[in-house]
Sequence to fold (648 residues):
Amino acid sequence: MTHLKTSVVLDFLRENQGHYISGEEISRKLKVSRSAVWKEMQYLRDLGYVIEAQPHMGYRLSSIPDKMFADEIAYGLKTKFIGKKIFSYDTLDSTNDAAFKLGEQGMEEGVCVFAESQKKGRGRLGREWVSPKSKNLILSMLLRPSLPPTEASKITLAAAVSVIQAVRKTTGKTLGVKWPNDIVCGHKKVGGILTEMSAEVDRVNFVVVGIGLNINSVSKELPKGSTSLKEIAGHEVSRISFARDLLEQLERDFLLLKKGHFETLAKEWEDFSVVSGRRVAARVSGRKIEGEALGIDKDGALWIRKDDGLQERITAGDVECQWK
Amino acid sequence: MTHLKTSVVLDFLRENQGHYISGEEISRKLKVSRSAVWKEMQYLRDLGYVIEAQPHMGYRLSSIPDKMFADEIAYGLKTKFIGKKIFSYDTLDSTNDAAFKLGEQGMEEGVCVFAESQKKGRGRLGREWVSPKSKNLILSMLLRPSLPPTEASKITLAAAVSVIQAVRKTTGKTLGVKWPNDIVCGHKKVGGILTEMSAEVDRVNFVVVGIGLNINSVSKELPKGSTSLKEIAGHEVSRISFARDLLEQLERDFLLLKKGHFETLAKEWEDFSVVSGRRVAARVSGRKIEGEALGIDKDGALWIRKDDGLQERITAGDVECQWK
Fold:
């Protein structure tokens, strides 16, 4: 577990990025001793910050580490509640489990948990989620929506829209979504969303939205049939800047959901959907349903027109597209 | 927290209930020292067991304490999985929270948590559940059903049937159920069921069923409009023996549910329902729906025929019967 302690020295260096500032000036303006300034520089360098030091000129921040430090993600983040509190870890068993515990402890809506790697990362239905260390995005977010459990799937769909919009902003590329929770590029998987909840029968206590997205990994490091933003965009992507964009987009979309505008999100979702209008095969508790995917309804369930003309509503299970 | 350690001496006394057994015989048969036997008698007496001792005759168990000790409930319990592991506590914040933690820890299905009192007992929708200490039943049970969250309400309905059947066996009286989770006698509340779950959008991880039932409390100790089995039956009810009957009935009903026979339970539920066929007023997220309650459907939702002839399906909220 690596936490970056809130560092006023770092804030000061950031504000003067590109310029040298003397140790004396830092010491005077922040009212700390010269030796405290020196110790802080060492601490920041140990974390991976590149701080140049020149005699008679002072210190200059020349690069920040490629680490999902809470403090870095929060720096310049323009949100009201998503990510107002961020916990970041080097390794966790599961960010969803960690966020779930925060939910049980009564932590407020919008708290985010990031990790560089997970020991027991999970996908849907208890499947494993594999993500090479410090390459990708692993995020779980606590929400407290006023929804019955039957409508929790709306949150997965909203999060998928947020991910695709944030990726578009960062890379200019438009990914697809494969019902219910896969983020894809053509046939290849780029990410997934795992929504879990603590609920009464007719009321959600809280929801944890887990998002795993391949950012700077390459195919050979990933499970078969996967790709990453780096491969799609043709260049590395700043994980921190992407995380900020994503949190801002998530806030926009969850506010829409809270205000009852799910149909706006559903329309965006349909635009990104790789299943709608395609021939699909769905597996629902051992049964196979084949036909044309028609789209999602107001609760986020998928409708399939079967070959016998009957329409069936799917709320669980897996869907495979039949590509021509 | 009071746990009864598993006591071979107690088992020996129980097997010989009504007869004196000499300390020497106990010591010889159980292969423990005379002083260990004496210490064990003191331990059991401290817990409230009445053990008579007569010179030249030995010890005799003449009564057991009115406490929900795990060991007492388990003694003679005829179940396969419900209550094969029981935790009992003097005081807990909430038995549902304790059972939820056991669920997160991967504990097996059927684990039961009993408490004499709760500091933060909850009813549905975050309401308070009040139960005077050591008078009533407070039980939470861990289940791992293969259900989507949309069908979790079936578990509440099944548990209501179990409670009413167990009460009938113990007292000969038939209580009623007021949708979705109140156990009632006429207009008065006798108990309630709080079903909570950890779930993905389309799969339940585990369910905790909390049951609170007024057994030996009297009205003046209880919230307004409540009564107890003691008041209904006209005599005290053995809480331990009732708990055993309840666990056995719960197992029967959950096996029915697991085997897909919800309609059998739904039929029993309808027989006990005080709302079906009656004029009701339901409050659903601020809206009031008045009309005749028709009954529950295959997912446990309540149907109401409104005054304009339209039928509405209710999955959440509160229902008040309009008594004539």
Residues 8-63 of chain A form a domain with the Arc Repressor Mutant, subunit A fold (CATH 1.10.10.10). The interface with chain B takes residues 100, 104, 124-125, 148-150, 152-153, 155-156, 180, 194-203, 205, 315-317 of chain A (CB under 8 Å).
